[in-house]
Specification:
It is built from six helices and 21 strands. By secondary structure, the protein is mainly beta.
């Protein structure tokens, strides 16, 4: 953990060139909806909560982070509103066409495909938990509902629109997860999950302060604000609303440096810490439903219900830089294949129209941008991606040559 600094040392530091040396990442995630690269590392700066409404005891950033870490809410239920705005174009029917094929042959109730809907738009979730053996997340749609239920050794996914059921057995059910997590395979869908992902590791690339108090879902809360010190990041800040009594994160907001609406916002609109009714976690496949059984361990990609909201896993990718300006580098294997990258056919032309051509010491390529994550694809098939600016990607590619 980085040494604590005074409040006067929380400004943005000088720009840092990406390191030409590379290291293997044990697990590197380019986020489509959550913090991943952007908030993987933070340093703590002590600050006292400003006066506000409600009037809560003053607390330092270090104390508030420790309060989150010690939070051990085992029973709860509530409603969570999730909004994602990456600034992606509406692909319409093309998205459905691209989604057919290998994934389209599986069950619509498979959480690995169904819950990717959270990567765009605004959605309402109902969540419930009763200890490490019972959790439920329901995605409420206009005329249908999708539910993911963990009850004992069983994990069920049910899509009411298609009347399809997905079933598997929870691996290591009831055992502690990493760092003593007692929730086992609780589905990741609440502000707590995103907040703890952001707080997993700390260093001096980030300042963390307490910025007053607020009310969330009818409860008193502190606001923890995380800001990058490094130039070149696309992230302005991350704000976590922390329940003053339990330490449970009630709201998580990631704001881009470009301004406008948050890239990602997840917050409780209703929450209760009473034990949910036992029937909440009961599930039997409805009559006539198509049931898809999957045995855990049949391959290395069996469902991990502790992290299904982190698409784009780039395990084993090389990384350049550190902290908020970390960039993943990997080879697509498409060296010299211009058709698959910028030219060639309607699809190549369409994809090319979504990006900006760039050039440098590395050669030529195209940058594909969202409001958070940008990716540079060079003509030789190398990809550089991260929650960094276009200029930072080009600089990294030049330095890498």
């Amino acid at each position: 953990m980085a040494p604590y600094e005074s409040d006067h040392a929380t400004g943005t530091g000088p720009d840092e060139d990406p390191r030409t040396g590379r290291r293997k990442a044990a697990r590197y995630v380019v986020p489509a909806a959550v913090v991943g690269v952007a908030a993987a590392t933070i340093g703590l700066v002590p600050a006292l909560a400003a006066s506000g409404d409600p009037d809560l005891p003053k607390i330092s950033a270090q104390q508030l982070v420790e309060k989150i870490a010690k939070s051990d809410v085992q029973r709860m239920s509530g409603t969570v509103k999730v909004s994602t705005d990456l600034g992606l174009p509406d692909l319409g029917s093309l998205q459905g066409t691209m989604g057919s094929g290998e994934q389209g042959d599986g069950s619509s109730a498979d959480p690995r495909t169904k819950l990717t809907e959270l990567t765009s738009g605004t959605h309402t979730l109902r969540v419930a938990a009763d200890g490490p053996e019972k959790q439920k997340v329901s995605l409420l749609e206009r005329d249908a509902e999708y539910s993911l239920i963990h009850s004992g050794k069983d994990v069920w996914g049910y899509d009411s629109a298609s009347n399809e059921v997905f079933h598997t057995t929870a691996q290591h059910s009831g055992e502690k997860g990493e760092k003593g997590d007692k929730r086992g395979h609780q589905p990741s869908a609440t502000p707590e999950d995103f907040a703890k992902e952001a707080l997993k590791s700390v260093d001096d690339t980030t300042s963390v302060t307490v910025d007053g108090t607020t009310r969330i879902a009818g409860r008193d809360a502190y606001q923890l604000v995380i800001k990058p010190k490094q130039a070149g990041s696309t992230v302005r800040d991350v704000t976590i609303g922390v329940d003053a009594k339990t330490g449970l994160p009630l709201k998580f907001t990631l704001a881009p440096k470009s301004g406008g609406a948050p890239v990602f916002d997840a917050g409780f609109t209703k929450v209760s810490f009473a034990a949910p009714p036992a029937s909440t976690f009961d599930f039997r496949p409805p009559k006539g439903a198509k049931v898809t059984e999957e045995k855990p361990g049949k391959d290395e990609h069996a469902p991990d219900f502790g992290g299904q909201f982190a698409p784009g896993d780039l395990s084993g990718a090389d990384t350049i830089g550190e902290g908020w300006t970390t960039i993943a580098k990997f080879d697509t294997g498409a060296k010299g294949d211009k058709t698959s990258q910028q030219g060639g056919g309607a699809m190549g032309g369409f994809l090319g129209s979504l990006g900006d051509p760039v050039s440098g010491d590395f050669g030529k390529g195209t940058v594909f941008s969202t409001r958070l994550v940008n990716a540079l694809i060079t003509d030789d098939g190398t990809v550089y991606a991260g929650a960094v600016t276009k200029d930072a990607l080009v600089k990294a590619a030049d330095a890498d040559k």
